[in-house]
């Protein structure tokens, strides 16, 4: 019998996120209280008050007046007698103000301490902390730049092309590329203006632009007692406009020595900054397109001894959409670990207890039309059938059911399909079977894109980086 | 952000801290009545709600309805445009209650004398029977003969009541509605013969609540 945690947890999120967190709450006998906007008050997951679920309405559909308002969210937790709050991912999950308000009002925030969130939320201090902890970082300025003239001096040192980035940025905004000294001034001014408009902070820093890299990230977990483990890495290189489409673990191209060294240093770095809970170090695997012999190798023949550096980009101080990939490889429930860590428990497993088996792939199925420029496709789902579980090899995380209306106010994720196999090829084959069985009518989905990617030679033979979607024609504006 | 400045909302600070003023939303009445033109005002957010208007009070657009306390910050909630009428319902007067966005806070009867006029205009509510007068329930709900437990009854047998006198409260879908005597076709005053319903009994629309007789 494990020690007690919480009776009621406020879930400050919606959709697939809320459904995912609630599933663990149900299993642990905790009442999940869904803080919803008026647009989501009838969402399928909010049902079941008779079986220990509850709902509190925050405000209008507009996220700024509901899901993004930390004051409303914490008040909702207090007045519904929740003693803990799970922020999920997206919305306020990386907002230190929410964590501080929780602390002030006696609600346990399920996440890291506010000062660690603040440290990792600003790019330069995060980078400095990671470099001090032994991780490689992308060369660039030591903190925000006071002027375009200083930017040019730094750029001359690190070498062109360079990327000017917003200190408080994210989501691809507040970024400008300068390919030569003459472009610095305009790029600096544009990045500054965009950063001011988007984030209310016009500080800009500079990094060498690494083109053609792969996105690799490390799942970290820490308790409040200084115990830190990793749950392996994930490769999220298949992206479109900085939006991840497919995630997998292990990374099919990462050199074993580099993997082991980086995992170890990421754990040390998390311990050094006093991290608590689930977090992800995002890294860039540089080096240009894979070696020419990659084409000759057998698909799925294992790590290709990819040479290059794995450099820290940023740390996400929350669980991520694709945490499911690590769960399916390790058999762990990361939401359960989060709840236990927030309650002050010691981690119940050491690094040696974490077993990472086989190969896992995840496809994010969005309500977007891949044949019409990925136009969002809200509306009513008239028919909905989930694929066969294939003896537990397939997991589907979703909040959708037949008749559900995808609201136009929020993101377009319908479900995540996660497939496990002994090898990458087996996971791909199982995924293709599952995607073929998934039925969704009424809205357009990105399923055809995933099928095309998974079948492509480029994907099977690792001939892609973050700039191109393997097996999919390039966007005309790219 | 609705209420506090960043870093705000702290409990335990001295004095009351005020946030911006918010306008109540307009909602539909859960049990519409053809004769009663109800305006339901809804909470604009989450918080501890305390009404500052009393049943019977006349409310105009922009008028303060009450306060919503959100993480220790007091937000004034005012009546929206078009909300003009008399307060007929108040779920829990005086005590702060937990309100969610969209929860009904107050109900107004449109105009000055909507309920009085309605009782007379519709025979279902007040009828002049051969043997005397009756007041019937304008809606299904729970009958309350007194304003609060332990308080004197609104009316007792033998009382003489006049236009506007409160006869009872009806709780309909968690909101309280005041039923008053008066209107066209009714004598200006009447004597209560009997209260036909036990306190806190559930009644159906049209049930006799009071038997009356005219007095000159």
Key words describing this protein structure:
heterodimer; A: 478 residues; alpha+beta; Rossmann fold; Dna Ligase, domain 1; D-amino Acid Aminotransferase, Chain A, domain 1; 3 domains; five-stranded parallel beta sheet; 22 strands; 29% helix; 26% strand; B: 216 residues; mainly beta; OB fold (Dihydrolipoamide Acetyltransferase, E2P); six-stranded mixed beta sheet; 20 strands; 43% strand; elongated
Explain what the structure shows.
The complex is a heterodimer of chains A (478) and B (216). Chain A is of the alpha+beta class and 478 residues long. Chain A is built from 13 helices and 22 strands. In chain A, strands 13-12-9-10-11-14-21-19 form an eight-stranded antiparallel sheet, sandwiched between helices. In chain A, helix 2 packs parallel to helix 3 and helix 11 runs antiparallel to helix 12. The N and C termini of chain A lie far apart (55 Å). Chain B has two domains: 94 residues, RNA polymerase II/Efflux pump adaptor protein, barrel-sandwich hybrid domain (OB fold (Dihydrolipoamide Acetyltransferase, E2P)), CATH 2.40.50.100; 99 residues, RNA polymerase II/Efflux pump adaptor protein, barrel-sandwich hybrid domain (OB fold (Dihydrolipoamide Acetyltransferase, E2P)), CATH 2.40.50.100. Helix content of chain B is 4%, strand content 43%. Chain B is elongated, with a radius of gyration of 19 Å. Chain B is mostly beta strands and 216 residues long. The interface between A and B is medium-sized, with 24 and 23 residues.
């Amino acid at each position: 019998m494990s020690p007690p945690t919480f009776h009621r947890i406020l879930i400050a999120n919606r959709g697939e996120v809320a459904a995912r967190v609630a599933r663990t709450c149900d299993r642990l006998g905790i009442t999940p209280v869904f803080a919803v906007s008026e647009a989501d008050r009838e969402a399928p997951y909010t049902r079941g008050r008779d079986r220990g679920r509850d709902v509190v309405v925050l405000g209008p559909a507009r996220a700024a007046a509901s899901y993004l308002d930390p004051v409303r969210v914490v008040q909702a937790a207090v007045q519904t007698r929740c003693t803990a709050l799970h922020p999920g991912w997206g919305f306020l999950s990386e907002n230190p103000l929410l964590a501080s308000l929780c602390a002030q009002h006696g609600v346990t925030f399920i996440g890291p301490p506010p000062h660690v969130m603040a440290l990792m939320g600003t790019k330069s201090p995060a980078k400095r902390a990671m470099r001090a902890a032994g991780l490689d970082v992308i060369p660039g300025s030591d903190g925000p730049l006071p002027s375009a003239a200083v930017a040019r001096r730094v750029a001359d040192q690190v070498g062109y092309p360079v990327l000017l980035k917003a200190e408080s940025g994210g989501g691809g905004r507040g970024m400008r590329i300068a390919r030569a000294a003459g472009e610095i001034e305009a790029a600096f001014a544009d990045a500054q203006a965009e950063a001011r408009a988007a984030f209310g902070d016009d500080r800009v820093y500079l990094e060498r632009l690494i083109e053609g890299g792969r996105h690799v990230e490390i799942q970290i977990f820490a308790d409040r007692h200084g115990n830190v483990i990793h749950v392996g890495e994930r490769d999220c290189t298949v992206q479109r406009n900085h939006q991840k489409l497919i995630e997998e673990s292990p990374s099919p191209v990462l050199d074993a020595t580099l993997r082991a060294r980086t995992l170890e240093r990421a754990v040390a770095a998390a311990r050094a900054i006093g991290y608590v809970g689930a977090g992800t170090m995002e890294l860039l695997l540089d080096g240009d397109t894979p070696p020419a012999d990659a084409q000759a190798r057998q698909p799925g023949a294992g790590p290709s001894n990819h040479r290059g550096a794995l450099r820290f980009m940023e740390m996400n101080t929350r669980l991520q959409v694709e945490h499911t990939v690590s769960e399916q490889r390790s058999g762990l429930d990361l939401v359960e670990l989060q709840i236990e860590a927030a309650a002050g428990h010691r981690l119940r497993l050491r690094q040696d207890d974490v077993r990472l088996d086989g190969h896992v792939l995840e496809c994010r199925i969005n309500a977007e039309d891949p044949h019409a420029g990925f136009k969002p496709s809200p509306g009513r789902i008239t028919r909905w059938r989930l694929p066969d579980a294939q003896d537990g090899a397939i997991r589907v995380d979703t909040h959708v059911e037949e008749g559900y209306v995808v609201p136009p106010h929020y993101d377009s994720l319908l479900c995540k399909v996660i497939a496990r196999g002994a090898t990458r090829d087996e996971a791909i084959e199982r995924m293709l079977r599952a995607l073929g069985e998934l039925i969704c009518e009424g809205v357009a989905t990105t399923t055809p894109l995933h099928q095309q990617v998974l079948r492509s030679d480029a994907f099977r033979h690792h001939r892609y980086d973050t700039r191109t979607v393997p097996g999919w024609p390039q966007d005309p504006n790219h | 952000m609705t209420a506090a400045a960043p870093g705000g909302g702290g409990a335990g600070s001295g004095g009351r801290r005020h946030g911006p003023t918010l306008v109540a939303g307009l909602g539909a009445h859960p049990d519409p009545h053809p004769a009663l033109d109800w305006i339901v005002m809804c909470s604009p957010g989450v918080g501890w709600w305390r009404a500052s208007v009393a049943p019977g009070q006349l409310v105009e657009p922009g008028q303060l309805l009450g306060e919503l306390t959100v993480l220790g910050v007091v937000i004034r909630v005012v009546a929206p445009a078009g909300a003009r009428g008399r307060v007929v319902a108040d779920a829990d007067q005086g005590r702060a209650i937990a309100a969610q966005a969209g929860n009904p806070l107050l109900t107004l009867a449109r105009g000055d004398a909507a309920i009085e006029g309605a009782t007379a205009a519709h025979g279902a509510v007040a009828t002049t029977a051969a043997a005397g007068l009756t007041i019937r329930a304008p809606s299904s709900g729970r009958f309350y003969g007194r304003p609060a437990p332990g308080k004197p009854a609104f009316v007792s047998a033998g009382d003489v009541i006049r236009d506007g006198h409160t006869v009872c409260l009806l709780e309909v879908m968690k909101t309280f509605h005041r039923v008053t005597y008066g209107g066209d076709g009714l004598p200006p005053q009447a004597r209560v013969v009997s209260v036909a319903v036990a306190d806190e009994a559930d009644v159906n629309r049209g049930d006799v609540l009071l038997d009356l007789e005219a007095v000159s």
